[in-house]
């Protein structure tokens, strides 16, 4: 009777330890899955920030080019007006 009790108790403890091991493996796997998902999210966020930064640079570059062209045109118009003014003054 004592052997049967100890055998049953040993079996119960062995099954309990097995279940705890399975639970721990599941928890570790889930933890890694969450970690990897977080890393993927962080990578995607960095890629998005890089894209937005490049787009911002492109916009600022285009805007700077447009402004420089406008300033050049205004300067040319002013020089033309000054030239005409001198021609009329000395004519």
Concise overview:
The protein has 91 residues and is mainly alpha-helical. The protein has one helix spanning 2-90.
Mean pLDDT: 94
Question: Treating each run of at least 4 consecutive H or I residues as one helix, how many helices?
Answer: 1
Unreliable spans: none
**Biggest sheet, open or closed, and with what strands and sense?**
none
Give the amount of beta strand, in percent.
under 5%
Instruction: Return the structural class.
Output: mainly alpha
Radius of gyration: 39 Å
Choose one word for the global shape.
rod-shaped
The share of residues in helices is over 70%
User: What's the end-to-end separation, in Å?
Assistant: 133 Å
How many runs of DSSP E, i.e. beta strands?
0
How would you explain this protein's 3D organization?
The chain is an all-alpha fold and 91 residues long. Helices cover 98% and strands 0% of the residues. It is built from one helix and no strands. It has one helix at 2-90. The N and C termini lie far apart (133 Å). The mean pLDDT is 94.
What key phrases describe this protein's structure?
98% helix, mainly alpha, 91 residues
Topology:
Layout: H1 2-90
């Amino acid at each position: 009777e004592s052997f049967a009790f100890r055998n049953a108790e040993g079996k119960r403890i062995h099954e309990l330890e097995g279940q705890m091991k399975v639970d721990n493996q599941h928890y570790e796997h889930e933890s890694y899955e969450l970690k990897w998902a977080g890393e993927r999210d962080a990578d995607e966020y960095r890629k998005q920030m890089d894209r937005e930064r490049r787009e911002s640079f492109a916009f600022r570059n285009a805007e700077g080019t447009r402004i420089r062209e406008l300033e050049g045109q205004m300067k040319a118009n002013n020089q033309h007006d000054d030239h005409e003014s001198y021609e009329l003054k000395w004519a």
